[in-house]
Amino acid sequence: MIALDLVGVDKNYGGPPVVQDVSLSIEVGETVAIIGPNGAGKTTLFGVMAGETRATKGRVSLFGKDVTRAGARHLAEQGVARTFQVARYFLEKTVEENVVIARLAHQSRYRNLVSKSPRSDDTVDLALDAVGLSSARRRPSATLSHGDRKSLEIAMALAQDPSVLLLDEPTAGMGAEDIPGTIELLKGLRASRPEMTCVITAHDMNVVFALADKVVLLANGRIALQGLPDEVRDAPLTREIYLGNSYREDR
Ligand SMILES: Nc1ncnc2c1ncn2[C@@H]1O[C@H](COP(=O)(O)OP(=O)(O)OP(=O)(O)O)[C@@H](O)[C@H]1O
Where does the record place the ABC transporter domain (predicted)? Predict the structure, then answer.
C-alpha cells in the first residue's frame, strides 16, 4: 500500500519553479531519504508533503486520499508528523511537558494545554522511552545536550502517533559524537514501528545510507535519480551532482 503519493508536483514562489514535475510513491513502512545540493528544493518538497507548502501543480495523496489542498493541520490529523532542522519546543518546560503539549496539541485539547500540569499518558511514556529520554523527563528542556534536544523533538512527533514521520535533517548542527547515537535511535524506531513510513532529508550521507530503503536525488527541483541506496551512491550522476565534495567514505 502507498502511504504518500506525489504526481507531477510543481512549486514556485512567484518565479520559476523550485520543485518541478516530481512524482514519487512512498510505500507504507518505507524509509525514503531525499538528498540533493543546497537549493535543490528538498525543504520545499518536504513542506509539500507536510501540507505546509501548497503545490502549484500536481497531486498529493495520503493513503489514497487526495490531500493536495488539505493544509498542514489536516495532514497532522491524518497522521503526518514532522521535525524541523532547528528543533522547536518550549525551553522553559520540562522534557515531559513538551511531549505532553505536542500530544495535546495534536488532539486539539487546547484547554488542557494551559492547565498547570497537563497529564502524561501511555503514548507519551512510549515516545520518551523510544528516544531514551524517560530518565530525563523532569529536566528543563533548556538543559539538554544538542543531541538530546533532537531526540526530544522526535519524541514530540512520536507523541502524535504518526503513520508518516517527516524528519528534516535529524542530525543538523550535531557534533560528530552525537550522530551515531541518533542513527541508532532512528534505526531502533524503524525496527519497533515497522508500519511507520519515514521521509528524511539529510546532508549527512552516513545518516542516509544507514537508514534509507530508497534514496531520491533532487537537483534543480527535479528528481535526477531514485533507487536503492547503493545504486544511488554508486551512480556517476550522484557524484557529479552531489557527492563529489561532500561525501566522506567513512562507513
Ligand atoms: N519562501 C520562499 N520564497 C521564495 N523562494 C524560496 C522560498 N523557499 C525556498 N525558496 C527558494 O527555492 C529554492 C529551493 O529551496 P529549498 O530550501 O527548498 O532547497 P533545499 O534543497 O532544501 O536547500 P538547503 O539544502 O540549502 O536547505 C531556493 O532557490 C530557495 O531560494
Answer: 4-245
